[in-house]
């Protein structure tokens, strides 16, 4: 399985187009290698998983941690209100403008969290 069907989606948005393209590309590489080598073993075909994890696995794990952070503060009204108030902070706005990327939200979120600006 590839893309959304394999659960390879962005944790924050649930989007699967970007991750689908990455997993499709890596599936094609693994299939091509298997056909060229006439090796259809589990080990050979596991190249697919190794490839996509190498390319985007760390990013997906990082964003999953960010998602857990936001879910944890969502049950604390006081903390959540504080976070929403801080979003209008000039530092936050500048970070979003300079680092914000829909495919890599972890860059901006980690930068802001590390500076303790969201709580």
From TrEMBL:
Which top-level group of life is the source organism from? Archaea
Q: Matching InterPro entries, A to Z?
A: FAD/NAD-bd_sf, Geranylgeranyl_reductase
Q: Which residues cross the membrane?
A: none
What is the name listed in the Swiss-Prot or TrEMBL entry for this protein? FAD-binding domain-containing protein
* Originating species: Oxyplasma meridianum
């Amino acid at each position: 399985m590839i893309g959304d069907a394999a659960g390879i989606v962005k944790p924050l948005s649930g989007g699967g187009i970007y991750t689908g393209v990455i997993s499709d590309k890596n599936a094609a590489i693994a299939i091509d290698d298997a056909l060229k080598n006439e090796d259809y073993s589990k080990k050979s075909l596991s190249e697919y998983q190794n490839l996509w994890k190498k390319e985007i696995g760390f990013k997906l794990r990082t964003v999953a941690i960010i998602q857990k952070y936001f879910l944890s503060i969502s049950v604390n009204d006081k903390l959540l209100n504080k976070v929403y108030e801080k979003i209008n902070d000039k530092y936050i706005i500048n970070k979003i403008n300079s680092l914000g990327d829909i495919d890599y939200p972890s860059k901006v979120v980690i930068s802001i969290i590390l500076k303790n600006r969201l709580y």
